[in-house]
Amino acid sequence: MRVLVTGAAGFIGSHIAETMQAAGHEVRGLDSLTPAVHNGRPDHVTGEFAVGDVRDPAAVDEALTGVDAVCHQAAMVGLGVDLSDLPMYSDVNVTGTAVLLEAMGRHGIGRLVFASSMVVYGEGAYDCAAHGRVQPLPRDPGDLAAGIFEPRCPVCGSQLGTSTVGEEAPLDPRNAYAASKVAQEHLAASWARLTGGVAVGLRYHNVYGPRMPRDTPYSGVAAIFRSCLENGVPPRVFEDGGQRRDFVHVRDVARANLLALEASSRSAEAGGAGGAGGLADGALRCYNVASGEPHTVGEMACALASGFGAIEPVVTGEYRLGDVRHIVASPEGAARDLGFRAQTSFASGIAEFAKAPLREPALARV
Questions:
Q1: Lower CB density within 10 Å: C or N end of the chain?
Q2: What's residue 36's pLDDT?
Q3: CB of 122 within 8 A of CB of 173?
Q4: Helical axes 297-308 vs 346-355, angle rounded to 10°
Q5: Which residues lie closer than 8 Å to 202 by C-beta, 6 or more apart?
Q6: Is the pTM here over 0.85, yes or no?
């Protein structure tokens, strides 16, 4: 099939484009090549490619011509630096998605796979010994300042145990990026209902791997730590390093997109009854994309530093109010409906990433 990949020059989008091309699909890339991220077309971008912004209706219309499906990756990422980032998250992630979906409807394109994120859940799954499964409130700044990082039971204030988060968990966005990703999911659900299309949202967990950008505050923790090592300084681990995450390799994420795209195609061919891949026309389905092998942020920093051959990380006790403590996913839904299981182990993936080149920031090259 002919697939439009938005954000095709970026970290995740470029791997998706390559994976889909290798599977025999025709790929058209669309990327704004914004100067804050790119200094021209990157060398790793191959095949049909157009420069354009998903917020621009004319550029989107042109990119969608002759396309069978869309894999939407273009976004502003990260937790944000300060309040000045709020308009950009809303503009790029929400308005850009709305422009794309409206144009897809006019072009009669009925298959969509898009990048969501684990951040839509807020905190992960927690259990109180007295009150069972609970949704903790945002962590108290006083607790954080005192070095108390674990969330409390919202009923009795006691310590909580952690569990894995399934896709049925309530959405609880706790920063601007998370709110924009929830909005994307709602827009995709509306598009599917109005058009009868098949929409698949992939809730990425902590993605890492080759082509991560260097020296940007909007990148993931893996790239931030790797940038520190590249610059000859120890990674600075916030809180006590005990935050649990699921680190998933970018090649696994690319394969999850391919499987989701092919499952949406099978659903369309089956008449949208939901019998193929668990998907159904006129509906949105979301899946965790995770390794199923959780580790703490401190463990990741130490493994990365060891693979790089540099000094040990420093645990600072610092914190950010938008961060969550633990978020570990259940990957069973994607395994059941899409046939996706991560293939890259934490040990081998981090060892590779420790030596892989990072993408230099555009402003450092001009």
A1: C
A2: 63
A3: yes
A4: 50
A5: 113, 114, 115, 116, 253, 256, 257, 260, 286, 287, 289, 334
A6: yes
